[in-house]
């Protein structure tokens, strides 16, 4: 791995470590991954989650059942194909996902307030470019 890649990874982990929200919920990494997948993908069901996590359909189904019981996810029928079940985040699920994957906006605002306009623009543009390219990797 190149030293640039290692350095970027170090920067990213430093940023997240210092600026993440304090976690209120005790949820597993796998639950976070499921919530992220539902958030980022259109028309996602149990099969897609099982494939993404590389687990059996039954295991994925049990995870989803628990997330529905916690009111993080809801099931809905596909309007074009009533046989197909799609998963969606509830408002609570969106909040839990945000707190477990995003930067604390107050902390981030404090850091950004210490930057001049040029630095803010550099940070925004760099993250925008990385975000756009990352979306092309999948």
UniProtKB/TrEMBL annotation:
Signal peptide residue numbers: none
A GO term, aspect molecular function: DNA binding
Keywords: DNA-binding, Transcription, Transcription regulation
KW Ribosomal protein (keyword) present: no
InterPro entries referenced in this protein's UniProt entry, alphabetically: HTH_MarR-typ, Transc_reg_Sar_Rot_HTH, WH-like_DNA-bd_sf, WH_DNA-bd_sf
Localization annotation: Cytoplasm
Domain of life: Bacteria
Domain HTH marR-type: 1-132
Keyword ATP-binding in annotation: no
Principal location class: cytoplasm
Gene Ontology annotations for the cellular component aspect, listed alphabetically: cytoplasm
UniProt cross-references to Pfam families, sorted A to Z: Staph_reg_Sar_Rot (PF22381)
Membrane spanning stretches: none
Family per similarity comment: Belongs to the SarZ family.
Protein name: HTH-type transcriptional regulator SarZ
Classification of source organism: Bacteria, Bacillati, Bacillota, Bacilli, Bacillales
